[in-house]
Design goal:
The chain is an alpha+beta fold. Helices cover 23% and strands 31% of the residues. The chain contains 10 helices and 27 strands. It is elongated and about 95 Å long.
Length: 498
């Protein structure tokens, strides 16, 4: 089955947590499919099902085992396939009526002022607690909500004209106050509890600048608007398409929501929301991109020193995280989806993008990013799609780069020394790559300070060998007074010197 559109009519209670939902699902089915199976967890109870939406609707048999609901479809599906050809498909429409108190996904409760509120919080596969869907990022669809909420609650719902994954299909119903932001691009607003409204826009004053920056380096904003909401998400921020939910406590802290977090969640609108990983093991295409593009905004807005400090923090996190040494970034074997929210997907993925930028150069890197986005916008992508786009832009093979950084756990643990031969005026570096079973191929930036205190940066090309000596091609008449390795923080490695 391939769902094309969801329409959810959600009735929220005045008190308590029991909701009522009428879900309409429009999908395509192959000829061999006899039932539409949707993820829907107990305690939600299915009350009725029908096929043929509208005037043609007829009651349909269904089963619900507390995990999935299966609705029997009429007929034999699409036309029978010709010999040697795939089965054809046809469209189906199913309406499902169900009710219950969601155990998760739609978080219903009261805030610190005892005001009733409800917020969707679906990532990664928690939509199934309250929405009947094919709850996997590979089946993106259009979505529309009609929400009946208690009096005094403002409703904000994700309603996209482009397909999105189910984990982004959320609503908010709470006593929210809207603060409209001054924008020159997409319309933006901040929705907060009444007592936080007077502190707005705070760091959201940069929201328009953030969007315009990403539009310049990637593509136009992919949705019709962008709202920022104070919510009850379990995460610091959740990048729902066109409606980012931030943790309630951030708005109640003196610092407010940080610029870096706003940039991270906004970058997700392009990477994660519009271009969505097809399989969970490729999550770095979402989180690594958002991490690095937030850092790119730091570079743009606050300068090189701030950008370098951010890279230092990324590298420090990666090199101290146990999961990095144990598992690769492309972690297709990890079945516990929450465990993918780790330093591999975020910090290592982000730093890998910086090394890729350094490897191919700014022009090819950003051309590759734009090509990758253009090919995958409102669709799904895998890491191989990024590699293809980057190779096309750089006009060379990058398989070795993607393999060593994304498919292997860990990072280089280097011991580097140098010696100078005044007779031949040569400078040679000895690079040992620790106990790693295979060496890494990389470029090491080295700052040389001569006896007069003059500094310059040279690039040392290191092959994928555990032990290698690399001699600079240029003549070095006098031994350096000091040698500093990777001064610009551009290599994901630890470096020891004798």
């Amino acid at each position: 089955m391939d769902v094309k559109r969801y329409r959810f009519e959600v009735t929220l209670p005045d008190t308590g947590k029991r909701i009522e939902v009428v879900a309409r699902i429009e999908a395509m089915r192959l000829a061999t499919v006899r039932a539409l199976q949707l993820d829907l967890l107990a305690p939600m109870q299915v009350l009725a099902a029908s096929t043929g939406c509208g005037a043609q609707a007829t009651e349909a048999p269904f089963t619900h085992d507390g995990r999935r609901v299966a609705i029997t479809l009429p007929g034999e599906g699409g036309a029978a396939a010709m010999e040697g050809m795939p089965p054809s498909s046809d469209s189906v429409c199913v309406t499902l009526r169900y009710a219950g108190a969601p155990a998760d996904g739609l978080v219903i409760g009261v805030d610190s002022a005892r005001r009733w509120r409800a917020f969707g919080d679906n990532w990664p596969d928690r939509a199934r607690h309250w929405l009947a869907t094919i709850d996997h990022p590979s089946d993106k669809a259009l979505v529309e909500f009609e929400v009946h909420a208690p009096a005094g609650r403002r409703v904000v719902a994700v309603s996209s004209k482009s397909p999105i994954p189910t984990y982004l299909m959320v609503i908010a119903a709470a006593p929210l106050v809207e603060t409209k932001l001054a924008t020159t691009s997409v319309p933006q607003s901040v929705f907060t509890a009444p007592e936080q409204a007077r502190a707005m826009p705070g760091n959201f004053a940069r929201a328009d600048d953030i969007v315009r920056f990403f539009e310049r380096i990637v593509a136009p904003f992919p949705y019709e608007r962008l709202a920022h909401l104070q919510s009850s998400t379990r995460f610091g921020g959740m990048e729902n398409a066109g409606a980012i939910f931030y943790a309630d406590a951030l708005f109640r802290s003196p610092e407010g929501v940080g610029v870096g977090l706003i940039a991270h969640e906004t970058a997700h609108q392009w990477f994660g929301d519009a271009v969505t990983e097809r399989e969970w093991g490729h999550l770095w295409l979402s989180e690594g991109f958002a991490t690095y593009f937030a850092a790119l905004y730091t570079e743009y807005a606050f300068g090189d020193s701030a950008f370098r400090a951010e890279r230092e923090e990324l590298r420090r996190t990666v090199t101290s995280a146990a999961v990095v040494s144990a598992r690769p970034v492309l972690d297709t074997a990890q079945a516990e989806l929450m465990q993918l929210l780790n330093a591999n997907s975020y910090q290592k993925g982000g730093f890998i993008l910086h090394m890729l930028r350094r490897e191919v150069g700014d022009s090819a890197f950003f051309a590759g990013v734009r090509g990758y986005y253009a090919a995958g916008a409102h669709r799904n992508a895998l890491t191989s799609d990024l590699r293809i786009a980057m190779e096309r832009a750089a006009k060379r093979d990058l398989g070795w780069f993607f393999d060593q950084w994304l498919r292997r756990p860990g990072f280089p643990k280097l011991e580097v020394s140098w010696r100078h031969d005044p007779a031949t005026e040569t400078l040679t570096f000895l690079v040992l790559q620790g106990t790693t079973s295979r060496g890494y191929r990389f470029t090491l930036g080295v700052e040389l300070e001569d006896p007069d205190g003059v500094k310059r940066l040279v690039q040392v090309e290191v092959p994928a060998q555990q032990r290698v000596e690399v001699r600079l091609r240029e003549k070095i008449a006098r031994a350096p007074r000091a040698v500093r390795y990777d001064p610009l923080v551009e290599l994901l490695a630890t470096i020891r010197t004798p």
